[in-house]
Amino acid sequence: MYMNALAAALLAALLACAHPCARAQAPIVIKFSHVVAPDTPKGRAAERFRALAEQRTEGRVKVEVYPNSQLYRDREELEALQLGAVQMLAPSLAKFSPLGVKEFEAFDLPYIFPSKKALYAVLEGRIGRNLLRKLEPKGITGLAYWDNGFKIMSANKPLLEPRDFRGLRMRIQASKVLDAQMRALGAQPLALAFSETAPALRDGVVEGTENTPSNMFTQRMHESQAHLTVSNHGYLGYAVIVNKKFWDGLPRDIRSTLERAMVDATTYEKTIAQRTNDEALEAIRRSGKTTIHTLTPAQEAAWRRAMAPVYTQMEGRIGKDVVGAIRQEVAR
């Protein structure tokens, strides 16, 4: 069913491009697909970009935003973008590894970013730009990085010491680094699509997960998780990407206008990301369904020691030069 739908969407896209003169007055349609809820940082920024793009192009561009995996799930959306069935995505950085760009998995390394300031120095500097350029041979143009924030852990028991993870089935994104992270803690990692995670937690397929507070709250994951630990052990961010052929084929003035709209939507996204997560964590606290724990300095030190081997295990996969460059940047 999925392949038939994808083939139909691709055929429609080809037909739409077949007679540009006959459709000169029709707006350029950008289908923007993502997997999270509209009221998350990514969802709200996608809507901001839609509004800015349509307003500033005076209706020459129409942006259709499809949240909550309405069109494609995690493993499907990148293929859909490369085929031209959708034009824009904002996948988490871990999702580029299956394309052969494993360097993005550096962002999954535990405790690699000591602060948002250090994180932004990497994303907005030479390292971040070089990583986006690596997507171009895959038919993808990177436009911006969007922030979600640092992750927390959840389960049906307190997760305070590394030994508390022993034997737990923990949902992760499809990332070799996250797999190694959970194994270092003694857990059993299971890679699931984001859209499958909340049902898997409710049904006991997995016993816990990691994510940002906004993603947990909007998907109501906390309702089946008795305990959350504010560990801030890992980062979750996104890259806003477009189909390169589509982007390069846009009229120059339209593309420039959309680039400026993306810059402004990105600035907006960064201003709301932390606040949205703080509000989500407070809403989880007020729900009374979940006990929230914060690691003590000694407990955090134990987590760091337990996960330190992940760096040596993954340097060969990610690239020692990439990991070294990030560590050098964040140490400034």
TrEMBL record:
GO biological process, one term: C4-dicarboxylate transport
Name assigned to this protein: TRAP transporter substrate-binding protein
Gene Ontology cellular-component terms listed: outer membrane-bounded periplasmic space
A Pfam family recorded for this sequence: DctP
CDD domains: PBP2_TRAP_SBP_like_1
Gene3D superfamilies per record: Bacterial extracellular solute-binding protein, family 7
Signal sequence interval, chain numbering: 1-24
Domain of life from the UniProt record: Bacteria
Entry keyword Transport: yes
InterPro entries in the record: DctP_fam, TRAP_DctP, TRAP_DctP_sf
Family statement drawn from the similarity comment of this UniProt entry: Belongs to the bacterial solute-binding protein 7 family.
Classification via PANTHER family: C4-DICARBOXYLATE-BINDING PROTEIN DCTB (PTHR33376:SF7), PTHR33376
Keyword list, A-Z: Signal, Transport
